Amino acid sequence: MVPWGLPGDPDLPRGAGHGPRRRRRALQRRGHAARRALGRRSGALEGRRRAQGGGRGPGASPGPRGFAVNERPHRSGVVALLGRPNAGKSTLLNRLLGQKLAIVTAKPQTTRSRILGIVTREDAQLLLLDTPGFHASEKALNRALIEVVDDVAQDCDVAVLLVDPRHGWDEAHEALRERLRARHTPCLVVSTKADLRAPPEDAPIDLALSARTGEGTRGLVDRLVELLPEGPAFYDPEQVTDRSLRFLAAELVREAAFEALSQEIPYETAVEIESFDESDPRVTRIRATLLVEKKSQKGMVVGKGGRMIREIGIQARRGLEELLEKQVHLELWVKVEPRWTKRPNRLKSLGYH
After folding, report:
1. Hey, CA dihedral for 205, 90, 234, 41, is it positive or negative?
2. What is the mean pLDDT of the chain?
3. Cα torsion at 280, 281, 282, 284 (round to 10°)?
4. What 8-state DSSP symbol labels residue 265?
5. Distant-in-sequence contacts of 178-187, Cβ < 8 A, 24+ apart
6. Cα–Cα distances in Å, from 86 out to 106, 147, 167?
7. Residue ranges of the alpha helices (H) in 75-131?
8. Is 23 exposed, middle or buried (0-12, 13-18, 19+ CB in 10 A)?
9. What domains appear along the chain, each with residue ranges and CATH number?
10. Which phi and psi angles does 157 have, rounded to 5°?
11. For residue 350, which of 242, 270, 296, 256 has the smallest C-alpha distance?
């Protein structure tokens, strides 16, 4: 696996309430949390045992002979958001964070990478992992996305299995729940879109919520905290992700392309950030390349007279300027790279791991 936060990347955004400029100055806190979120649990668990057995953690008070006595145990761990495409995983992540981190479109299978969102409160820190929707496919890209889901499901402390009430409960949900049960991983089955439809009667629903309105989300967090193991916070309380601005910029460009393009083209398009220049305090200059597999696709992405690529650029720039809170000069290029969706090494280099 390639680490999420790459050396030299721009600083990471922080939590809501402190302004985008302050969020962008946040330093990355790697160590145990990054390893844990990537599934490398041994180092994190060792750190957790040391923290519990030794020094004072949050909520601890001095006890006899210098030992810490926890009046209110602090809990922390990885929570995997799992479900079919368009079940509402990314919308729920954004709602719990109180700001946009994961891109959301009306098209299924928008999420391609595992995305870490950090929710911190006085008694707990939840490391929320948004994942691609699980489905069956023989394409290399889709197989890579399914591997992401499998890895996260195996290494999380708690799983949230989201069920879209419009489509109900099926064998894939049941199989995943059984795999989690075999690993003794706590799993909450959650019906989404409660503002639109009642939970499916054939599903073993633990609770229902609406990520769009926020209904039921507070109750979900409370239930998750109860299920998490005791442990220290792994990240600064104000940090909301370990993803870099470079990654978020690529996602915003990809979101704009998903919204603008039709049929299968969005699913065969990737975005690479070639340069991210913040040397001028007044404007950030970003150069990005949209990868497609065929020459005919390049023509569609560019559009007649460059109309389509301009539309993608306009929409992406709006999101980037909102994120960075300053002017953005966005330069977009389109490049044909045959079979990029079928080459595992290329998929990893693009962050689909």
Report:
1. positive
2. 78
3. 60
4. G
5. 179/153, 180/153, 183/154, 185/153, 185/156, 185/157, 185/158, 185/159, 186/157, 186/158, 186/159, 186/227, 187/158, 187/159, 187/160, 187/161
6. 8, 18, 11
7. 89-97
8. buried
9. 11-243 (3.40.50.300), 245-349 (3.30.300.20)
10. -85, -35
11. 270
Least Cα distance to 97 among 304, 308, 238 occurs for: 238
**Looking up tokens 């600083």, which residue turns up?**
11
Res. 275: pLDDT tops 50: yes
In the predicted structure, residue 84 carries a pLDDT above the cut 60: yes
| Band of residue 336 on the pLDDT scale cut at 50, 70, 90 | very high
Interacting residues of 226 by C-beta distance below 8 A, sequence separation 6+: none
Paired tokens of 197: 């439809």
Residue 153's pLDDT is what? Answer: 74
HSE-up of 92 (CA within 13 Å, CB side)? 33
Cα(280)–Cα(277) distance, integer angstroms: 8
**Can you tell me the distance from the alpha carbon of 231 to that of 49, in angstroms, rounded to the nearest whole number?**
8
